[in-house]
Amino acid sequence: MPVTQFNVIDPYKYINGFGGHKESEAIEGALPLAANSPQKCPYGLYNEKLSGSAFTAPRNENQQTWLYRILPSASHQSFESVPDHVNQSLIHSKSSGSQFTVIPNQLLWAPFDFDSGSSWVDSLHLIAGAGDPTLKQGIGYYVYALGRSMDEKSAFYSADGDFLIIPQHGTLDIRTELGKMLVRPSEFCVIPRGIRYHVALHDSEPARGYILELYQGHFQLPELGPIGSNGLANARDFQTPVADFIEDYENTEWSLYGKFGGNLFSAKQSHTPFDVVAWHGTYYPYKYDLGRFCPLNAVSHDHIDPSIFTVLTAPSIPHGPGTAVADFVCFGPRWNVSENTFRPPWYHRNTMSEFMGLIKGNYPGDFRAGGANLHNTMSGHGVDTQTFEKASGMDLVPTKLMQGSLSFMFESCLMVGVTEWGLKTVASKVHQFGAIVDLVADM
After folding, report:
1. Does one domain contain both 132 and 269?
2. Where along this sequence does the record place binding of Fe cation (predicted)?
């Protein structure tokens, strides 16, 4: 069965499908009829527009959602900068060019440590990236490792970009303004820029994973071209939460944390930020089970480019057609049947940079689940000597690859730099014919 089997049952309801207009209401009749901003909203709610694109963006690219909530999101006290000693990890992940060291060496990270004392906001560590969120250009690659849920009356959002969150260990119970999602290992979710959310652990189990923050544009499904109308990640398999709200019956104190220009700010408010009773539009969080991905491959000869494993893409128009500021690629179980072919990936120098992580499974060498590696722009990489020799002489029978394994790649047209924290945590620098095996070279 291609769908991932999970140990944790998801109790929440979802709306199926990727992109397009969706609507949801927690109370019947909460959505106004035939108007977005009536003089009086049903149930005395406030209407609020959440814009993820310019008002004048083309219709097929315009992302906006109307929220109908108990109180406006603007009703909070002033934001104050969080002192450095409270959150070193996020404060020091300011994503300007000066924060990154750009080097051509291939880098390998061992599995990142858990931090039993950290909640979601404290656990975010920028490991690598490029660009500047204040200019809405580029990307940031994070790892998180938390040991406790966020405080009950707290919420977080990023004004810098969309968060693509990939759990590697432990389940995330996420309440967003638009509804709740349970995100388990082998799933991922996307929380768009500006949407507020709370992250709790499931059964108090520590959690670890990866994040791609997209500073420019939004993710979309890749075009299928000659593949046709189906395959890869099918739109019907994406899930969007349904409306769910908290109603405060008396004044309470909530802490709202905002990531803004790579810095962390906080503000107090006397009511819950999770008071959206109904919503409709095209701008919302969603999740996807990577076990539903329908892989394609060669059925005659030659190893195909890894672009055939693209789940989501964020095009970079200035860099030319077919080029992405970020591609999210996954490698899961599949058959390899190519004849007269060196089956692992060929040795390669790529104009794109490749950051890879292992969600589950084992690989030769020191690459382990919970770790990562980086092959930067034009840095040569490929399989080690032992794998090369084995692949050159093996009997080319049909082979099932990656059984029990799941890995991913963030590919970008940008030259990716590494933060000071990322360099401190590097396990080793590796070179061609070194200790590391190309991530998709599962023999």
Report:
1. yes
2. 348, 354, 381
